[in-house]
Design goal:
This protein is mainly alpha-helical. The protein has 28 helices and six strands. The strands form three sheets. A two-stranded antiparallel ribbon has the order 1-2.
Length: 794
């Protein structure tokens, strides 16, 4: 007797369920493509819009996709068709496997019985002839058993085959429907799966094109004041950031139609004589935001698909062209485009190539209008722009797009506002606009916008500041170059509008031209706080052209910085930003000194040098704040301002984890510190600090002592004793050393009495007072040198 391999005789159906796995794998990949490429899954995994994969589709895809409602509906529909189509096939396979398993067991049992029967015959006492006849009969019986088992097996396979053909036919229909091509019955399973997979994006595109046609009409009706169209358009809001939809919408509208939608809004308001309910203003803003999102998506060439160069060329042509309204008013197309871009959110960002191409052209066009002097944007007195009764078509407020221009404030619809607002969404794109000199012009766009056009910003440079900040806060070479150039331009102009009488400075009216960008300037300097410290400490001269970046650092001039700080620190928020960033720089700088390799004396020398330099720059900032307030006729905020709060709340006492020091750069560390800052009653141990000079010195003292404690930097002969020494008036409970860790308690955790005891002990080490004295002397020097740059008596 021998074993029989029933599994090889009756294998499972040859079409193992690869179709099931393959199709589902394809759909999972498609869903993953959507979520990663188009960002249609929010960070917490929740569904935007309330729709996503569901049921078997969710199990198949392993994820949820959100965003385009039409895409989701089509994908779910297809997935819903695929699963029912596969289900009979999967069921047939499972049933066949179970039946085949039983068949194999019975077959083996029959085979063993057959083998035993032959053995019995061979061992019988019958004659050879009789045995031969019995064997023939037994073998015939086995052949019938074997044949019957094979017939049953083929029946199982037939059931699977029928189910497979039904599934395949359904899948062929699905595949043919989504890609419009007939799938050959002879195609492989792989071809079939690919047809379903590649057909879904095509189906999506077809649906997106249909939706775009609908929305192009809705946008025009909404602009004409139809509130129902606004509500209908809102239903497609998620699709605006979908490249298929956005590209189709821009093509349906055409460049001309796009820039004329804001004109239609203006026409509606014109007909209402400017008296429009607030809801219409909100509706216009919604429509413009929808169009801005779609425009940003469709013109970003990193998306697929996107509008082609011919469309962008048309947009530039229409931007420069005059467009007429039915009431006789007419406007330049770029004014309409500016209204759309002004409504942009930060996401999705406008693309770099779009800002380079269309953005540069828009600025060049404005500069051409402005060639005879800063007379652009046009006023309502300009008949080429106004309607029959002198009313212009666009907004007098960038917060309420679509209003009529107020004759007393005609400039807010200037397309430069919209362009810069869009540029602020993309730092590299903003760089492409600013670091460019148009043909025939002498100065770059940066110089033009910051200097030549300086007095024409009705928002006092707020949008310009946002775009400039986006272009300069990075640490790449282009960001540092533009930061250096911008500070030089701003510093030179600020010096022209600040006047010294020897005792104090005063500001003329022009000094507030760019007051709206002071917060952005503070953020720019904060992002380059180490370069600012380098320039001030080394009294750097103004950087020359071509030398804006040296050794990986943005080059600033100390004089430029002096006047930029004078102007910037007139703003409370900007001043606090600078102070916070400088405090963070100081704390990180001191930690680097204490953590450096070397002997105790070498570390103390590092601290002495760094504390002195950092305190010098802080003194510079504080003197700038003082002069700024006095120049505006305001009282000093020495006793109640941001610096006083930092000292009172013990910012310098906060211990800093080493990992946090490595994680955050100089420009981010100050914000981390202020987030951790909290009020300590025991801060009284540092005495009253009611002047900038004392606050500077106190903050440095806090930081030096906290750094020494954290790093345990003490001379070998002056280690902190575990308990109060003999003769001390301090009780054991008030001692500053933790009895369990045998380490000094972090300063921000000490009680007032512990902090007093610590300061008394630290003062006897010799080195600590030496470091603090060095810092205390140089902080006054910083203020003195600052006044010299401003031409003030010292």
């Amino acid at each position: 007797m021998g074993d029989i391999d029933a599994a090889s005789i009756f294998p499972y159906p040859p079409d193992d369920p690869h179709v099931i796995a393959g199709v589902r794998s394809s759909f999972k990949g498609f869903a993953k493509h959507l979520s990663t490429t188009h960002g249609q899954v929010v960070s917490d995994g929740s569904v935007i819009g309330g729709k996503g994969w569901s049921g078997d589709g969710a199990a198949a895809c392993g994820t949820e996709i959100t965003g385009n409602a039409a895409l989701i509906a089509a994908a779910e529909h297809a997935m819903g068709q695929v699963d029912p189509a596969i289900a009979p096939y999967a069921t047939a396979i499972d049933t066949a496997r179970g039946n085949i398993d039983t068949l194999r067991k019975n077959y083996i049992a029959d085979w063993n019985a057959h083998e035993r029967a032959l053995t019995t015959i061979d061992n019988s006492s019958k004659t050879t002839s009789q045995k031969s006849a019995d064997r023939s009969t037994e073998n015939q019986s086995w052949r019938w058993t074997d044949y019957g088992a094979m017939v049953v097996y083929q029946g199982y396979l037939s059931d699977v085959d029928k189910a497979a053909k039904g599934t395949r036919k359904t899948l062929e229909a699905i595949g043919s429907n989504v890609n419009g091509k007939k799938i050959s019955p002879k195609s492989s399973d792989f071809d079939l799966r690919q047809a379903v997979l590649t057909g879904l994006p095509l189906l999506h595109m077809q649906q997106a094109q249909k939706d775009a046609q609908t929305c192009a009409d809705l946008a025009k009706r909404a602009a004409a004041g139809d509130p129902k169209a606004v509500a209908e358009l809102a239903k497609y809001g998620q699709e605006a950031s979908d490249p298929y939809f956005a590209t189709a919408l821009m093509n349906d509208l055409t460049a001309k139609g796009l820039v004329e939608i804001p004109g239609a809004m203006a026409k509606y308001m014109y007909d209402k004589h400017g008296i429009v309910d607030p809801q219409t203003i909100k509706n216009n803003a919604k429509v413009l935001n929808f169009l801005s999102t779609a425009l940003a998506t469709a013109t970003n060439d990193t998306n697929q698909p996107h509008v082609d160069q011919a469309w962008l060329n048309d947009l530039k042509q229409e931007g420069r062209a005059q467009h007429k309204l039915p009431n006789g008013a007419h406007y330049d197309g770029y004014w309409g485009l500016g209204q759309i871009m002004e409504a942009a959110d930060k996401k999705p960002p406008y693309g770099t190539s779009y800002l380079r191409d269309v953005g540069r052209d828009l600025v060049s066009w404005v500069r051409d209008q402005d060639k005879n002097g800063p007379t652009y944007p046009r006023t309502n007195a300009d008949a080429t722009f106004t309607g029959p009764d002198g009313q212009g078509p666009f907004s007098n407020s960038i917060d309420n797009p679509g209003q009529l221009i107020d004759e007393n404030n005609p400039g807010m619809a200037n397309p430069l506002y919209g362009l810069l607002h869009a540029a602020a969404t993309n730092g590299q794109g903003a760089q492409q606009i600013l670091d460019y000199t148009p043909p025939g012009q002498k100065d770059s766009n940066l110089t033009y916008l910051l200097h030549t056009h300086r007095g024409e910003w009705n928002d006092h440079g707020n949008e310009l500041g946002n775009a400039l900040e986006a272009a300069t806060i990075g640490h790449d070479k282009e960001s540092m170059k533009l930061a250096s150039q911008a500070i030089h331009i701003l510093g030179t102009d600020a010096a022209q509008y600040a006047h010294s009488d020897g005792s104090h400075v005063s500001f003329d009216d022009y000094s507030d031209d760019l007051s709206g960008m002071r917060d952005s300037v503070a953020n720019i300097l904060g992002s380059h706080i180490n370069e600012m410290n380098f320039a001030i400490s080394n009294k750097r001269g103004d950087p020359s052209a071509g030398n804006e970046v040296v050794d990986g650092m943005a080059m600033f001039g100390a004089k430029d910085l002096s006047f930029v700080l004078l102007d910037t620190e007139r703003d409370d928020g900007a001043y606090k930003t600078l102070l916070t960033d400088q405090a963070g720089y100081m704390r990180k700088d001191l930690d680097a000194g204490a953590g450096s390799s070397g002997t105790y004396d070498e570390k103390i020398q590092q601290l002495r040098t760094r504390a002195g330099a950092d305190s010098y720059v802080l003194g510079y900032l504080l003197q700038g704040r003082d002069e700024a307030l006095v120049g505006e006729g305001k009282a000093t905020d020495e006793q109640s301002g941001a610096m006083a709060d930092m000292v009172k709340d013990g910012l310098g006492l906060i211990p800093v984890p080493g990992g946090k020091l490595a994680e955050l750069g100089y420009d981010k560390f100050g914000s981390w510190l202020t987030d951790k800052m909290r009020t300590h009653a025991e801060i009284d141990a540092y005495g009253t600090a009611d002047t900038y000079k004392l606050q500077n010195q106190t903050l440095v003292n806090q930081m030096v002592e906290s750094t020494l404690v954290q790093h345990g930097v003490w001379p070998t002969d002056h280690q902190p004793p575990l308990v109060p020494p003999k003769g001390s008036t301090v009780s054991a409970a008030d001692w500053f050393v933790d009895q369990h860790t045998h380490k000094i308690i972090p300063l921000d955790k000490m009680t007032e009495s512990q902090l007093v005891a610590f300061k008394q002990w630290a003062a006897t080490s010799g080195s600590v007072p030496d470091v603090e004295q060095q810092a205390g002397g140089t902080n006054n020097d910083g203020g003195t040198d600052y006044k010299k740059w401003l031409g003030l008596d010292t």
